[in-house]
């Protein structure tokens, strides 16, 4: 049989493993796989992207467009018309110090509580303003979008120094919750909830930009909203400069050592113990994204990057240092040099991690538990029970099982997670409950586990029989750690692909070529 013939091709030193690693690896993988079936998201929408309010923005002339809606809103506010219910209806999402108003309801059965956005009707909002003796002015409202099906227009408002009682009386079940907490609390498999998160992120970014662009940077005169708060302009008639909402591009990269099948992950100071993630940094004016990837990697770790491959991007309105919205642009960056020199002002540590270590970190992290903890916290806050609003405790919830994984990587709400998992499991669709991006870094090996689970029962039995006969006859010598395979995991993959030969001839040719080239390069090195 082919696999046995193939083993005989290998030099005798390589046929020496004493401890066969496959069953253990397989069981952890099977576990990852079986956990996954209930939850997965389409990762074309990262957290904060896929905003349903932005997908088909109404054009000028449409009665629900920003300018038309603003006119209608103005009329409604100045006429003090509380009794009629004219079309369209206006829904407003209040924010206090960057936190959206939210509510929470019990999940079905054993599932965690579900948070929702605390939209208020215009009349309710006006009532709340009147009770506090505050003036609701149309300039405070920022247009988000409209829905022709609901005949509704959606707005956001910053009520930070106004209406103090809003959200403090928990009888209504409403409270202001940190966006980061909501982010962790969102069930990433539920596209509607992810849409709500994206709406809150978009609104927060717009309001924060409004707050710090109150004055014109040219002449120092006050600015006024335009296009229902989606733009601003200087109120000085001889200046009239337009001001646009700010987005700051940040590159985030997984630096990959192709030859040794490792990835570079870094730990930032003051963060959670064992939390390792991708390198990242702001782009400089006059710099391309690729150049920023190379410069940041060099500055922070002393590693030179060659090829840079785009992966995906994510809006990030929850940066701690009051930047309204970063745009995280994700890349795979292939290292040209391997020696790490950590910039201690930026990083606490940076290390190369094997694919297997990274896979373990992803497989054993308790992301679902983290989501539940945060969702329960939101529930408690909305009931008025939880006053401890520490951010650190939100982030700490994703800690992994220390026995099984030496490091923790950020959860599925972060693009870093998706960069890391699409490298580590470049060929698997779902890991630990999260769908992986199918993009793979060049040079990754072909994984056939997923196919195994899809095979018919007869084929599965045949593969298992072959597999058992293989280990019982040949186990005595083959050192995965001898270096021929980048990891025991890849050895397991290799075996499986061998078995796949009986189904797919092409695959085995690819594997054979790969293996031979690895062997040749290892021999040359020695
Ligand atoms: C609407 O009410 C405000 C106070 O709540 C008042 O100042 C304003 O004059 C009223 N507008 C009209 C048109 O009645
Ligand atoms: C607006 O900016 C001021 C001054 O920079 C700050 O004190 C305040 O907290 C900000 N408000 C919000 C809602 O971010
Ligand atoms: C946003 O507005 C467009 C145009 O009216 C509409 O098609 C879309 O459904 C709206 N989104 C939501 C969530 O209302
Ligand atoms: C208005 O803008 C002009 C031109 O930029 C400037 O010279 C003038 O000082 C500004 N006026 C005020 C009140 O800021
Ligand atoms: C508040 O949060 C901190 C960590 O951020 C935690 O150590 C502390 O126990 C919490 N307090 C309460 C009363 O939950």
Question: How would you describe this protein?
Answer:
Its cofactor is Mg(2+). With 526 residues, the protein is α+β, with helices and mostly antiparallel strands. It has 3 domains: 2-37 and 446-525, no CATH class; 66-243, Nucleoside Triphosphate Pyrophosphohydrolase, CATH 3.90.79.20; 248-365 and 400-435, Nucleoside Triphosphate Pyrophosphohydrolase (Alpha-Beta Complex). It is built from 15 helices and 18 strands. Strands 1, 2, 3, 4, 5, 6 and 7 form a 7-stranded mixed beta sheet that branches. Strands 11, 12, 13, 14, 15 and 16 form a 6-stranded mixed beta sheet that branches. Mean pLDDT is 77; it is low at 1-44, 437-453 and 472-489. The structure holds 2-acetamido-2-deoxy-beta-D-glucopyranose (5 copies). One 2-acetamido-2-deoxy-beta-D-glucopyranose (NAG) is lined by residues 78-80, 130. Residues 388, 390, 392-393 line the site of one 2-acetamido-2-deoxy-beta-D-glucopyranose.
Average pLDDT for all residues: 77
- The general outline is globular
- Count the E strands: 18
CATH class annotation of the largest domain: Alpha Beta
- What proportion of the residues is helical, as a percent range? 25-40%
> Remind me, CATH topology of the largest domain?
Nucleoside Triphosphate Pyrophosphohydrolase
Second rung of CATH, namely the architecture of the largest domain: Alpha-Beta Complex
- Cofactors, ions, other ligands: 2-acetamido-2-deoxy-beta-D-glucopyranose
Largest sheet: 7 strands, mixed
Question: How far apart, in Å, are the first and last alpha carbons?
Answer: 31 Å
Q: Rounded to an integer, what's the Rg over CA atoms? A: 27 Å
Total tally of structural domains: 3
Task: Indicate the low-confidence ranges by residue numbers.
Answer: 1-44, 437-453, 472-489
Structural class: alpha+beta
Strand content: 15-25%
């Amino acid at each position: 049989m082919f696999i046995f013939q193939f083993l005989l091709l290998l030099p005798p030193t390589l046929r020496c493993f004493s401890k066969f690693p496959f069953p253990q690896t397989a069981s952890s993988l099977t576990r990852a796989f079986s956990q996954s079936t209930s939850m997965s998201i389409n990762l074309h929408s990262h957290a904060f992207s896929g905003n349903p309010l932005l997908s088909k923005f109404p054009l000028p002339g449409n009665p629900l467009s920003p300018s038309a809606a603003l006119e209608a809103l103005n009329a409604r506010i100045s006429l003090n018309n509380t009794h009629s219910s004219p079309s369209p209806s206006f829904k407003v999402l209040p924010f206090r110090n960057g936190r959206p108003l939210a509510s929470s309801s019990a999940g079905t059965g054993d599932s965690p509580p579900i948070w929702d956005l605390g939209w208020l009707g215009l009349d309710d909002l006006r009532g709340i303003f009147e009770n506090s003796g505050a003036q609701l002015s149309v300039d405070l409202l920022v247009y988000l979008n409209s829905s022709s099906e609901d005949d509704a227009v959606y707005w956001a408002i910053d009520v930070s120094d106004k209406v103090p009682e809003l959200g403090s009386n928990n009888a209504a079940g409403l409270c202001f919750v940190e966006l980061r907490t909501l982010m962790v609390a969102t069930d990433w498999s539920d596209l509607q909830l992810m849409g709500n998160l994206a709406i809150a992120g978009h609104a927060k970014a717009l309001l924060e930009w409004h707050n710090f662009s109150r004055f014109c940077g040219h002449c120092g005169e006050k600015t006024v909203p335009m296009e229902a708060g989606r733009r601003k302009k200087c109120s000085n008639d001889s200046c009239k400069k337009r001001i646009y909402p700010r987005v700051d591009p940040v590159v985030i990269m997984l630096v990959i050592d192709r030859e040794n099948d490792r990835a570079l992950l870094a730990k930032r100071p003051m963060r959670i113990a064992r939390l390792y993630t991708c390198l990242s940094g702001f782009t400089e004016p006059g710099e391309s994204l690729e150049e920023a990837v190379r410069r940041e990697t060099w500055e922070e770790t002393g590693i030179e990057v060659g090829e840079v491959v785009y992966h995906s991007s994510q809006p990030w309105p929850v940066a701690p240092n009051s930047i309204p919205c970063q745009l995280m642009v994700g890349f795979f960056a292939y290292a040209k040099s391997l020696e790490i020199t950590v910039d201690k002002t930026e990083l606490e540590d940076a290390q190369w991690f094997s694919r297997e270590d990274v896979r373990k970190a992803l497989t054993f992290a308790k992301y679902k538990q983290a989501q539940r903890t945060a969702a329960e916290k939101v529930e408690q806050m909305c009931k008025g029970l939880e006053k401890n609003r520490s951010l650190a405790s939100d982030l700490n919830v994703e800690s992994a099982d220390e026995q099984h994984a030496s490091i923790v990587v950020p959860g599925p709400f972060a693009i870093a997670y998706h960069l890391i998992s699409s490298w580590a499991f470049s060929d698997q669709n779902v890991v630990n409950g999260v769908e992986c991006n199918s993009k793979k870094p060049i040079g990754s090996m072909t994984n056939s586990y997923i196919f195994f689970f899809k095979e018919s029962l007869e084929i599965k039995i045949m593969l298992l029989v072959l597999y058992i006969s293989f280990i019982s006859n040949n186990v005595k010598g083959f050192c995965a750690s001898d270096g021929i395979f980048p990891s025991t995991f890849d050895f397991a993959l290799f075996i499986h692909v061998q078995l796949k030969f009986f189904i797919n001839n092409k695959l085995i040719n690819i594997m054979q070529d790969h293996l031979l080239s690895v062997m040749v390069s290892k021999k040359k090195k020695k």
